[in-house]
Amino acid sequence: MIRYLLRRLGGAALVVVLVAVVAFVLFELLPGDAAEDLLSRSGAGVPSPEQLAALRAELGLDRPAVERFGDWASGLLQGDLGTSLLSRRPVSEILLPRVGNTVALAVVTVALLMPVSLGLGLWAGSRPGSRVDRAVSTVVLAVQAVPPFVAGVLLIAVVALGWGLLPAVSLVPTGTSVFARPQVLVLPVLCLMAGLAPHPVRVIRARMAQVMTTEYVTTARLNGVSHRRVVLRHAAPNAVAAALQPMAGAVVGLVGGIAVIETVFAYPGLAQELLRAIADRDHPVVQAAVVLMASFGVLVYLAADLLALWLTPGARDLVVDGVSR
Amino acid sequence: MTRSWRGVDRAALVVATLLGVLVVAGPFLAPDAPTASVGRPFAAPSWAHPLGLDSVGRDVLSRVLAGGWRLVLLTGAALVVAGAIGVTAGLVAGLHRRLDGWVMRPVDVLVVLPWFLVMATVATVLGRGAPAVLVAALLAAVPWITKVVRTSAQDAAGAGYVEAAQARGEPFHRVAFVEVLPNLRAVVLADLGMRITATVAIVTSGSFLGLGLPPPTPDWALMVSENRQGLAVQPWAVLAPALLIMLLVVCVNLLADRVELARTPRVPRTERPTAAPDVAVATGALSVRRLGVAAVDGRVLLDGVGLDLAAGECVAVIGPSGAGKTTLARALLGQVPPGFGRTGTVAVTRPAGAVGTRLLGYVPQDPATGLNPALRIGTQLLEVLRAHGVRDRVGAAQAVVRALTAVGLPGDRMFLRRYPHELSGGQQQRVLIASAVLLDPAVVVLDEPTTGLDDRTTAELRAVLRRLRHAGTALVVVTHDLPAMTDLVDRVLEVRDGRARLVQVPDAPARPSRRRPVVRAGRAPLLRVTALTAGYGTDPLLRDVSFELAAGECLALMGRSGTGKSTLARCLVGLHPLRTGQVVLDGRPLAPRATRRSVADRRAVQFVVQNPRRSLNPSRTVAHELARPLRLLRGSDRAAVGRESAELLAAVGLHAELLTRRPAELSGGQLQRVAIARALAAHPQVLVCDEITSSLDPDVQATVLELLDRLRRQRDLAVLFISHDSGAVARVADRVLRLSDGQLEPEPEPIGGPASSR
Questions:
Q1: Is B383 in Cβ contact with A229 (below 8 Å)?
Q2: Which of A54, B530, B614, B734 is the most buried (most CB within 10 A)?
Q3: Are residues B199 and B121 in the same domain?
Q4: Interface pTM, i.e. ipTM
Q5: Set of chain B residues whose Cβ sits within 8 Å of the Cβ of A144
Q6: For A240-260, what is each residue's pLDDT tens digit?
């Protein structure tokens, strides 16, 4: 088991390193470098070669790429995310003040997402073809189709502007906590759920419907076990393991979803800074964000895989034996 | 499907068509130039501008009309390109074991990365614009399509029609795109809805976030983003494009989903059987009167079945497959297929003095799928007790141990804590019987209990059933193998076309008479296998296997399942690599891989596999199936192919009109004969038959065996007949080899007596 765990963690680390290298190489291939960028953006006209050389030496850009990558990577490991090209401030200084708000939004969403999608999927799948199933499936299908920003705009138009119930923009004054005004979270969380829950609901429903037709469920019924008990004790454990992968997908999908939703509701999270950096091609900021996003994705999927393994006895033995042998 | 549901579909189709017209014709209908400012920003709707003006005073209607095609084009392009890459990569990964890792490792990396990461990177490198969005959408879609296609391709890789194509030396691209690809349509279509949704979401979100098309391009997502701050003043500038995006995706999604929804099975309902008053039949345990299963529309599965069974009696239910045996078994327990209803009465009486309250127990056909993989053995048994109201923990534990002991299993804690996958097939079956006999039900119904069990396990099962009978339990056994059960059975109920009648119990196990071997002494061996070792992973499955086979001889290979019989067959036809050893045909060694063998060698050794349904390509006609080996291995021209195909069908006793049919339109026996005809098409010297009769009904089995026997006499074919059915082996084989634990047992006397040599 330990060896399997170490191997998976090693694999996860390798993916993050790979992403970091690819991002570094891609940004390295961009025409122009930080020195040219800085000088042209300072608006002083076409910079002279001497100015460029001086700035390059100052920024360390005259050293070979491998060396710079090493510096950047070792800085990353020590928590130094690099320096913004534009503002010359450390990236962590730009991103940190806003992390709290984004994390709050993400945590609330995930805490609601899991029970809601699990419950709906199991409920609909336990009687495939029934009225409940058709209702849930149709609604989920329609909701899934709506891109989150469209849902957000429509909700603002109806709920906030039409009925005047909730704030249309989710402003959080600097230095205060989101939870001081929890109403600003309602619409953003709702939109995120609408975008992320449908896929896991559908996968869980499909898996549950399949489990309900298996021989062992039929046998349990024919041997007298009640419908309720069959669903909760016999079928559900077999359906939940299959649900973890799409659930992890939904959690990872938060990364993009939050970027969209923060923009829709003018919520002061990481997205605005990141989008500005992308538009300005401020690569140190993007590069740091890319590595963080990759680590997040890799860790979420790893956790889901391990949880699924823990829930499926057959697969667990196969994997653990296969490695320890 | 209900009528209202169809209504939703039709509405979706209409709206989707209208949207299509709007997207295509829109740019030509726009009243104003979509990028020209014609008035005050956020002016309200008027006659001239029905949807008002936007943030810089451009006509919203014109921009909406002009802005749809880019979204549709971008999404369509992303999907088509992603589909082409994903399907190819998936086929390569699924069918080519050595390339699998190379394809799947990058796929696994891409899958765990958020799409936003990819888009952020691409947009930073390429700058904002359509290419950035396209690349991000592609990178998000390709891995998922690859995964879906790979899974199905791997499944197809084991099918007979793919193996046959590989064994006759078809190049990889033909196997992948001609044989496998047409069968993936359903899988790819089912995934399509999800892919469209995800791709539209990425393309529009990219535009909305300002990473896609640059302003002032008219684009629905960009319009939503640009006019957001005016939502309170002029909502139509935002709502019109937002609603259009929503409508477009919802419609496409509903339509794509029809494919998937139509395939979901419905779960049958179970009624509990009624307990009859004790006076019904004084000694009877089970009394069935006029039992019928019929649908509302008049379809009848079962009609007027009557049966009386005393305590300790056993009735066997026999009949051809599809006649209603399993329907009868389940109807006894109160379960009918979805859409059907049950008529008549089933009364179960418990013998006087019985302790428990349980009436019926059920043992399903396949032990591997009958036990819940997520529950421990102990839990599964306790669940049955719980369902019958046993709440006393100590009593329940004792009952579980008693039931396990009754079927010859240990009742200790270690065993109770095991999961089903940690048991052997025979043990799994006995656990299922134990859970059926808990609380001493009056009647136990068993569905095909001997299927898939070897002789030794079947004998153990018979002993368990005999003990149950002595204890007073009435048994209903559905079986296709009556001889194996004869000594247990009091009565035989034959089901045919939904009607049941009692028939004579055969006296003794009906074993087919032994036939005389046809091989003449002193003939040189045609095929010689020497010291063959092969397997999967590190453990060799087959060790040091050697035997010889002469022309015109039928050699049977028997053994328990999992001993490597099929692997040996695959080694002979060049589908499985040998680790050591040699296969020699007519004095020349055969290359281990079919693709390395000469055409003559590929022709000489042909292969027929077990499952007739998977043996032929579901999406190809019989004519195609026969034409490929004729062309590839014999070089026949078009006219010759047509003539020879008809002759081949005639040789296996089928009519030439079957040539235009597809496998779904043929019966199991017909399919297996077509598979034999396909093998004969190559004019082989050796025919390897892997369990070709085991999934056929007894009467169909007999005709296939007869055919095999006739062919080898007529054509002097050497046949390697792999089977676990001793009846079938006795009918066709000259000699029998037994394989156990990957090694051949020393050869006993030839069946036909000392006169014949090998």
A1: yes
A2: B734
A3: yes
A4: 0.85
A5: 197, 253
A6: 887 888 888 888 888 888 888
